[in-house]
Structures are given as C-alpha cells and as structure tokens.
Write a structure and sequence with these properties.
Radius of gyration: 17 Å
Number of strands: 8
Shape: globular
Number of domains: 1
Distance between the termini: 10 Å
Order of helices and strands: EEHEHEEEHHHEHE
Strand order of the largest sheet: 7-4-3-8
Number of helices: 6
Strand content: 5-15%
Helix content: 25-40%
Length: 193
Amino acid sequence: MVTSTGCAASDALSFGQFSAEAKAIGAQSFVTVNYGSGTPAEAAAWVSDAKTVPGHSVALWEVGNENYGCWEVNNPLAGPPENYPGYTPNTYSTVNGVYENPPCPQTTQGDAAGTQTLATSYAVNAQPFLRAMKDAAPSAQIGVPWAFGGAVTGAAVPDNAEWNDTVLGRDGADGEPPRWPSRPAAHLDVQRG
C-alpha cells in the first residue's frame, strides 16, 4: 500500500529470493529504486548490495517508475527547482466529468506545462540518485523512465516528448541511451517504508 509519504507496507519477497527466482527462470533482473520517497544513499546501498552480496546480481536499474504521472509518490516535486506545493498521489476525483488528480501539475497547468513541471523536477532531482548509484558500482547500467506516446495503447503519456526531451537531455547527458534487457527481465520495485 502506498501513501502520500511513501510505502505503508512492503512485499514479503526478500531481495535474495527475488534474485534467486530471476536466475532460476533464466531472467535478468531489473530493479527500480525508490525515487518518490527514497534517498540517493538508499539507492546506492541497494546497488552496493547487489554488487557485493553473492547471488544478488542486478542487470538493470531504474531511478523511479512512471514519475511522469500523478499516481506515484513524488516528494521531490515540492522542492527545487519546481517548488510545486500540495501534490499528493492518487487523489483522483471526477471534475467536470473527467476523472483526474486535482493537485497534479498536468491538471492544474495543462498537459504540456504539467508534464514539463514533472520532467524538470525529475531531471534535476534524479541526478543525485544516478551519481550515488554509479559511485557505488561504476559499471551499473541505470535507466530512467521513458514516456510512451499515443501509439502505445494504454500506456500513453500526455505530451510525452516534454518528458523524454527534458529527462534525457539532462540525465542522458553522457550520451548513453537507456538500457533495456536483451532477455526477459524480472522486475522489482525497491521501496522501503
């Protein structure tokens, strides 16, 4: 269960069990670190654990998940550079016949400006996570959330180019594109309450 301040409960599957099960089915593991209410130090600790504990290997890392939308915890949004006040995830209601999240930037500012607000906040605030994770394991393959356009039914993000151009423009500055698994991947959201 996720609350506006983070996780209220955690999954009983341990990191070791997750790694073992991924290996057992021949999958690479893809782990998302907690951007919304976590810290760079916490993310680096996960990367360090995966690098040093036998059997805890991770093929791919991601900083946050679907941070381009208003259903995820996004505590950094309230701080610099956006200083967006009053955001809470999953506070959906019907407004003028539309089911939406009233404190969401995409609702209050419109799709393009709201997505830009989310992207700018993420691009700046994900940097410390990326640096800390790379410091923990320089060879770690780390990606950022990619926002799909209207051609992907059921997964389209309004004004996805605003997100992708902003996030990859800053976080992809090293010229490395996001990495995706070449074999089936097992995925784990690393969130600690």
